[in-house]
Design a protein that fits this description.
By secondary structure, this protein is α/β, with parallel strands linked by helices. The chain has two domains: 360 residues, Rossmann fold (3-Layer(aba) Sandwich), CATH 3.40.50.12780; 103 residues, GMP Synthetase, Chain A, domain 3 (2-Layer Sandwich). It is built from eleven helices and 29 strands. The strands form nine sheets. It has a five-stranded antiparallel sheet. α1 packs antiparallel against α2. The longest helix is centred in the N-terminal third of the chain and has 17 residues. The chain starts with 8 loop residues before the first strand and ends with a helix.
Amino acid sequence: MPANVTGFIRTREPTIKKMPDILCPLRGAAAQVPTLPALDAGDRVFTFSELDEWVEGTSGRLMAAGLQPGDRMVLWMENDWRLVVLLLAALRAGIIACPLSTRLPSIDTELNLLDAAVLVSGRGGRDPDEFITRSATAAEVFHPHSQPATVVFTTGSSGRPKAALHSYGNHYYSAAGSNENIAVGPGDRWLLSLPMYHVGGLAILFRCLMGYGTIVLRPDFPVQEALTGITHLSLVSTQLQRILRSDGQLAGFKAILLGGSAIPRGLIDAAFDRGLPIHTSYGLTEMASQVATTRQGATRDELQTSGRILPHRQTKTAADGTLLVRGKTRFLGYVDGRALIEPFLEDGWFATGDVGHFTEDGLLIVSGRADNMFISGGENVMPEEIEDALTAINIVERAVVVDVDDEEFGRRPVAFVDVGELVLDPSELRAALAKKLPAFKIPGRFFLWPERDAAPGMKVNRAFFRREADMLMRRSEP
């Protein structure tokens, strides 16, 4: 915790300044463009008017089942049209939607933390089809900016995931600022390639509803096989890598938003050389997705940054070099049972724990996580800097650097690298790194990418790689 953090405040009610109510984007779109496609689920397509009717009916069914505004509803479901309807219906009824990862073998811990009123899932709890129905709509629907809307778990790349509570306004203004930078309009089709239990997946819903674009669901197909007719994409580095390797036509895209974690420099260069309209970005769950993003037509050099701060957000650097954020997209706090932990500094700033700085042109450069940094022989080492240098080497497709115990230096970096079908040659990698990095930052050991890969996600699971490194180091001891 930074020195200037005064502590955590536990409250039962979120504290947020009163702002004007927000017209429901779906109800507004249904009135303005009723016959345009809102959701393309492959086997069925919903117009804005039809989707609004399904959300209205399902919202009524949820309330008839006894759910009240402020209740928490856990959604443990794969991406499909029913999840979209249930999530939007919960928001309309004032119920807090809590989508959980379907990769979790058990959700007992999450259920205890959330203190939810109901679990909706095909794997236990209430069947989703109990609530899905359609009905006529009438009056306009407004939502208070401060209305608690969703609980999304952070990625937990460096520790235990936390349950972040967002307001309706957080999601709305996140999408509003994004749409000013990456336009979405009628005829545009944004592939929902990220799960809706990640804030990046939820953001796609709001961007399309507010811009009259189409949300496209293809849950049964890998991203690289679902690109026909797609104009907008949100990708993490692994997905972009698979697309670049595929034999499909990479044309017709208007925007490809990259996020999740640092995108390897070599991958950005490869996408840029293919003429793909990529946007690099910086964001976090606590800010309802993007904080900064590069502009359309950004140069190669600009794409090595996170771009400029988007509307409705504010960012500054603390004395220790970490980034502080606030604005209309800043979350309400972390859920802990019925209480809410508000981990905010004076004037509402949130300490991200990410180290970064701004260029003279106002572009944000994020160096890495402060809690990833370690000391080796008295020198500060940032793993992300080494990873960036490794992925700039042609043969390296992916790299993760973690620290291990060392008798001489205290801690030393070791690297996991993916070199595809090639033979790993540590001496070749060391020679290439020596041209860019001082000796204390060159990994002492290089390991092949684990066959038992970490569960795929939005960010690097460093805890997994630390365990792998410790195991491999023990095996190599005499």
